[in-house]
Design brief:
With about 190 residues, this protein is α/β, with parallel strands linked by helices. It is built from 2 helices and 19 strands. The chain has helices at about 20-35, 45-50, and strands spanning about 55, 60-65, 70, 75, 80-85, 90, 95, 100-105, 110, 110-115, 125, 130, 135, 140, 145-150, 155, 160, 170, 175-180. The protein has a 7-stranded mixed β-sheet with strand order 2-5-8-13-16-18-19. Strands 1-4-7-12-15 form a 5-stranded parallel β-sheet, with helices on one face. A hairpin with a 2-residue loop joins strand 18 and strand 19 (about 175-180). The longest helix has 18 residues, at about 20-35. The relative contact order is 0.11.
């Protein structure tokens, strides 16, 4: 659930409650000391720290130390999910990364934006879901409210502003489905 506030009687209020801002300040300090500086193989440590701050984290999750997470309490990482270095999870609303999904280095999942038609330019947020076994490639951008289908591949540096279908290779700016993702038998 989003903690973004609305404008009341023409007076712009802070976009986030004081409680939200304090939680983020405590998280940012903990992130800088305990998360970002943790040795690369300590995925369990980082998962425990995320849980401590309210993230729902499954088993065998790999989140690398240079991944940036705005609000862990808005993060769901299912079993075997992975988030690479320099990925940016701007979790103003819930970001869900399903089982075996991968968010590669430098990818940006942005769950918040502004209402550009509002004179107050009010913030709002929409959840993002990355389907199971999907792969968000290097430096791809996933916008607010987007759902990536199970097994989809989002090509490097793609810009995704609309839902992408299951088991398709998708790429471009704007991102579009290109061809089915066919899995070889092992």
């Amino acid at each position: 659930m989003s903690e973004i506030r609305k404008v009341k009687s023409g007076i712009m209020e802070p976009s986030f409650t004081l409680g939200n801002r304090v939680r983020r300040a405590v998280w940012n300090l903990s992130y800088a000391i305990f998360f970002r500086l943790s040795p690369r193989p300590l995925h369990g440590w980082r998962a425990a720290l995320l849980r401590l701050f309210g993230a729902k984290v499954g088993r065998s999750v790999h989140v690398y130390g240079k991944a940036r997470i705005w609000a862990p309490w808005n993060l769901v990482l299912e079993d075997f999910a992975a988030v690479g270095d320099d990925a940016n999870l701007y979790s103003m609303a819930t970001i869900t990364i399903r089982e075996h999904a991968i968010v590669s280095q430098g990818a940006h999942l942005c769950a918040g934006t502004h209402d550009y038609e509002d004179p107050a330019f009010q913030l709002y947020s929409l959840p993002i879901t990355i389907g199971e076994r999907a792969w968000i490639c290097t430096e791809a951008f996933i916008g607010p409210g987007v759902e990536i289908g199970a097994g989809a591949v989002i090509g490097a540096r793609s810009v995704v502003t609309k839902d992408m279908p299951e088991w398709m290779v998708c790429a471009g700016s704007p991102c579009k489905p290109l061809k089915p993702r066919l899995m070889r038998e092992s």
